[in-house]
Fold these 2 entries.
Entry 1:
Amino acid sequence: MALDFRARQAANQRKTILLLAVMACVMAAVVWAVAYYLGYTSIGVVPIAVFVVVGGSWWSYYASDKLVLTMTGARVVDEQQAPQLHNLVEEIALAAGLPKPRIAIVEDTAPNAFATGRDPAHGLIAYTTGILQLMDREELQGVTAHEMSHIGNRDTLVATVAATTAGAIALMTDLAMRIMWFGGGDRRRDNDNNNNPIMMIIALVVMILGPLAALLLKSAVSRSRESLADATGVSFTRNPAGLRRALENLESNTTVVHSRSTALAHLWIESPLDNTGTNKLFMTHPPLKERIAALRQMEGETV
Amino acid sequence: MNAAVWVVVGIAVLAAIIFFSQYNGLIRKKVAVDEAFAQIEVQLQRRNDLIPNLVETVKGYAAHESSTFEKVVQARAAATAAHGVAEVAAADGAITQALRGLLAVAENYPDLKASANFLSLQEELSTTENKVGFSRQYYNDSVRTLNTAIEVIPGRFFAGMAGATKRDFYEVPDAENRNAPQVKF
């Protein structure tokens, strides 16, 4: 069923909300499982896990632009240094009704780009020297529109929420397992509460599978945000062909960016990890073929 | 306090939340439309400011094409005097057409096309045309959002209170002028 870009945007937004809701349920289930299995005095493990993960995640969200600049070695460029690039980005900022983000360049022959920043006022878009050489103005503008969409749709925030939840789930179950292993937990020594063995097993299964479910959900959220960014980008340029040709270019180009840390993989327009045999369920981006097909459909719709 | 009181309080709070979000939402959309229109005017002004430079550069190589220059200068003067969406859009269309004529003239002068001055103006003119186009697009998007919000329920009950009325889309009158003049040589 061919959808125009507005319908796709709406569909992807709903998908994100659904996925985050499911993640919240998984979190609730894990909290219950930990409490049930270990007894309520070990419930202290929950606030500890949440506090640690929230503290770490939210600091990195708040300082995301500075952090990413340091980790990738990108340098900010002004209008004198890259006039055409600045013009191109400013055009998209006008179409999006967003403030113009800062622009940075990463020295790397692999073509790629990313966007970050805690909100549109602190936005940053970075391009590798590779992508600037490979793509023409129209393609580069399509890529820029995609990146600007991430900023406009607050995807740094969404990713942080998803990562925080997944991280908290992982840490909670980890702590709970350790407590269990070292013979802690009141439940097992408790004689006067009904220790339903079936519920105990269910609780254990939830604790083991919880982190895996959270990881799958986090990847699904990332993919739906990428599809949303593609559709939103089209709403800015009204030219799906630009981004589509850019992605086709990326498809045939096999060099990968040097900065391949898993922490940053989701930020790039083409994940450096996606060709390393990652299972489709864990991919941070939908496969390039799917994205290109979706854009071709949008080309059919747009006058 | 009995349950009935809590229910009433709950309903009152809910009603207040709905009221504020609807009213404020309309205000924001209204302001967004005004800002978007101002942005179009900013970009049109930038284009107007580029024109004298462009005319002088072309004149340097093609002095006798006076009728073409006249058209551009006149269109620019008219644009400066325009107010309101319809007038601005019409003046915008006239300049686009005049610029197209000027650039067509420039086609015939290879010395002009190769000059450094003209080349640097190329990028400026091209990006300015794009910016005018995108700012028009964003204005129309904002108008669409506002007009829709005013017509749907429950928005329409708050529209009068918020002073929000339907706004006009920015329409380019002549179909030919919908495309920016090409600056590729």
Entry 2:
Amino acid sequence: MKIRYALATLASTALLTGPALAQEKIKVGFMLPFTGTYTALGVAIENGFRLYVDEQGGKLAGREIEYVKVDDESDPAKAPDNVNKLIKRDNVDVIVGTVHSGVAMAMARAAKQSNTLLIVPNAGADAVTGPMCAQNIFRSSFSNWQPAYAMGEVAAKRGHKTAITITWKYAAGEESTNGFKEAFEKNGGKVTKQLTVPFPNVEFQALLTEIAAERPDAVYTFFAGGGAVKFVRDYAAAGLKDTVPLYGAGFLTDGTLEAQGDAAQGLLTTLHYADGLNTPRDNAFRTAYAKTFKLQPDVYAVQGYDAAQMLATGLEAVGGDIGKKAEFSAALQKATIDSPRGKFTISKSHNPVQDIYLRKVEGNENKVAGVAIEGLADPGRGCRM
Amino acid sequence: MDIATFLIQCLNAVQYGLLLFLVASGLTLIFGIMGVINLAHGSFYMIGAYMAYALAPAVEQYLGGGFFTTLAVGIVLSVLLGYLLEWVFFSYLYEREHLQQVLMTYGLILVFEELRSILVGNDVHGVAAPGWLAGTIPLGDVMTYPVYRLFVSAVCVAVALGMWAVLTRSRLGMRIRAGASNREMVRAMGIDIRLLYRVVFAIGVALAALAGMIAAPVSSVYPNMGAQVLIICFVVVVIGGIGSIKGALVAALLVGFVDTFGKVLFPAMAGISVYLLMALMLLWKPEGLFKAG
């Protein structure tokens, strides 16, 4: 009895005198997909974020981090309600999310109105760091324009003169194929046709026949998930893989290689992360992640990890006072983030200025085959800040 | 579009249409004969596709493997599933309103998707076609065509012929047709209508699962694949006339052609071309091309 009492006193004294109470905790609200098709992505992002915070001893800029979670179900219709739960009910200091671009746009709108700090750890919609840009909105991933623009330059420099683009008829696909077109035509190529399939239709045969009849020098595509698997397999089955080279944004072959099998071997894609970077930073990250979560990290885990790094960098600059949005923003724009993907800086519109890798599919890996464009910055069109 | 490309596009259209028919035929059978709106039909397609993927290792281990052995096992399992579902759930739905049928079958979709997520996960998977069907044949100098796709079409044609034969030339088919037009009279004649319906339902489920299984190598398997198929199948059934197998076949081919050429000729409208077709059809013939019975 006595011992227990003594222990309890000890514990409470430790609590009272510990630095933890010096400042309130920082509340981080994850708004990520925890159910549905993108579950694995949401989990990887959360894991990556937590990994960085844990590496810092659970504190950023001396303040402890506390988490709240909301499942966004990748449903844009529910996005305003979900994000308001975090802002109004939970009173979070920072929102981290999400994967789906439509949901991310609603989040950006709400964050802008309430002046809550938002870090987008995946969604590539150009508008998030374009017309929707704001002092308190950041992105740790990429814009759809970035990998696409890099691939346009690569394709033109490989000597291709004509190209056809094909994607789903939705914003991300169109942003991506337009980015490709911009760079490809700037470097002397010509995009002869921009084909689209209604989203999420995966019946490609008619358009593959059109590509076969047209015989361009190259094809650029943006598909992800089930659509990416089917497109790559259909493309190979139509006998096009060997006659008309296929290029894509990295998502074409990310997390899908096992299902794509032989059809994907040798494909070239561009993205801000790759397998086999073999830098000390990336190796350390991969080992730590695999050890903690018993999972192999992917690009989404990196984006989550870097979202935490960006938060840490900003917080350090304002001494943990998250209310100082202007100083937070100014500090991040001067900072260099030491990411597993390689160092990057933050553009004026708050998107990473980063190397875009050219990757080649070998076995079940997207092996780095070089840097397509170094330090590529999204033009941030429509951003007035 | 030159003539070679045009012919290949026609082949694409027929091929897509036949696959749609295979899924839609089960739906029209259940809808037309038993009068149940079965939203879970897309889930049976999804279950079939996942069986082609998930059963393969077990079949490999115990039965020596092979795509067709997996197919056979899958069909047996889906017939059992259909039989069980009819017994436990659907047999209570015949006398109910359509709204209650929609609610319950929608509930089943959620249950099946969640079970799929728990059992197999949310990843996309590929299914290998059997080796001797994995090749391609050249079509002129334009492109090559996978042999497996032609095989799928052949299976669809075979199933269509088989269904036609059973429904119009066999005693079972006679009873099914009789049951569709007058349930009470068939019962009065001493036929076990409950058993009959159970069998029809099991066949409908098996047809959807079969479609999923043979489509798996071309479509790959992924979450929510059933939902896409379900919508287009309802379009086929509505255009063809509810309960009519012949109508489903004609409508499926029609949808195949409209979808294929819509994508090529009017890309801006590709998303709605099929629904436009359905709307026009409803204006012209509200009961569909061929009325059942």
